[in-house]
Recover the amino acids of this structure.
């Protein structure tokens, strides 16, 4: 198992003055695929939750914030895809990219050590909070941003309203003890749904929602663990009473688990959640179904998925940020 740390090297490689490129062939940027709000927002999350960022990382945060404010229209919705020639390929909307933009902006508003970044991010977050999405996951991502704002400013009615609406959009878990989850299918970044309920419980002193979120996360962890190692639901998803494929496992699922378990550890005080963060870190370091290192020590890039033949060696933005995000939690473990 590798003891090296990836840092931000590959994220810097994937970025330019405009934003963050979505795809790479191995470590080489594929400019023809352009940029997307989804990944820029993820980049803003990891860049601004560093407590003492180097100057280069602060410059990345500035670039990502400028991208998101450029992507936002007057209604608070966001474009998602920008081509390499700086033309938007879509109309503004409130899909997952809106939710992730709100997560990135909320994190920057709450955590950036740079005052003007906090101020500008909060302006854009407030404008985006005028919107709601019909998609539960988009609402969950936005709820994570709202929780960040509320932890910094408990009087923010804008953030409180968005967080509560996110919890309502996620819904209550099924009463089926074999599937205590609010949706009939597990897909991607599943742990974000449980994390939002935990955050609501924490920030509104709602013990029922806190217990529900912790119970959902415990079940999700258990069904994604095999022989003491993480074996996460693959890209194809999984439905109750259906065969469960083993591959292609995605780093985003591991990163979402690490985020949620770190929140659960802080809110509940239960040290078992810290051990689950460690196991999430270990998945990237080789404690997975292929015994494979899931990042490239030569570049610092995260591999794009775990297949039955081993890692997908492409090192795109989503997987690299999932790696960085998880390792941020590793540095905070006692």
């Amino acid at each position: 198992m590798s003891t090296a740390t990836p840092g931000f090297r590959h994220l810097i490689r994937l970025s330019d003055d405009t934003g963050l490129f979505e795809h790479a062939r191995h470590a080489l940027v594929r400019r023809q695929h352009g940029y997307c709000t989804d990944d820029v927002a993820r980049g803003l999350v990891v860049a601004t939750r560093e407590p003492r960022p180097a100057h280069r990382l602060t410059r990345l945060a500035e670039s990502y914030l400028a991208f998101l404010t450029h992507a936002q229209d007057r209604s608070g919705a966001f474009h998602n895809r920008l081509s390499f020639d700086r033309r938007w390929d879509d109309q503004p909307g409130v899909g997952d990219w809106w939710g992730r933009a709100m997560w990135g902006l909320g994190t920057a508003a709450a955590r950036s050590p740079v005052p003007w970044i906090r101020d500008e991010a909060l302006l854009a977050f407030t404008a985006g909070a005028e919107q709601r999405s019909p998609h539960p996951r988009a609402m969950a991502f936005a709820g994570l941003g709202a929780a960040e704002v509320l932890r910094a400013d408990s009087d923010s009615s804008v953030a409180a309203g968005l967080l509560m609406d996110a919890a309502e959009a996620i819904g209550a878990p099924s009463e089926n003890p074999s599937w205590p989850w609010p949706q009939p299918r597990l897909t991607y970044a599943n742990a974000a749904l449980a994390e939002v309920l935990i955050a609501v419980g924490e920030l509104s002193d709602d013990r029922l929602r806190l217990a529900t979120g912790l119970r959902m996360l415990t079940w999700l962890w258990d069904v994604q663990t095999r022989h003491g190692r993480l074996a996460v639901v693959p890209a194809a998803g999984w439905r109750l009473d259906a065969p469960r494929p083993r591959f292609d496992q995605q780093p985003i699922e591991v990163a979402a688990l690490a985020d949620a378990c770190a929140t659960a550890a802080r809110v509940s005080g239960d040290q078992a959640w810290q051990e689950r963060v460690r196991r999430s870190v270990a998945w990237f370091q080789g404690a997975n179904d292929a015994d494979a290192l899931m990042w490239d020590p030569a570049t610092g890039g995260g591999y794009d998925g775990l297949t039955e033949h081993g890692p997908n060696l492409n090192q795109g933005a989503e997987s690299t940020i999932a790696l960085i995000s998880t390792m941020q939690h590793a540095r905070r473990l006692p």
Observations:
- The two ends are 20 Å apart (CA to CA).
- The chain has a mean pLDDT of 95.
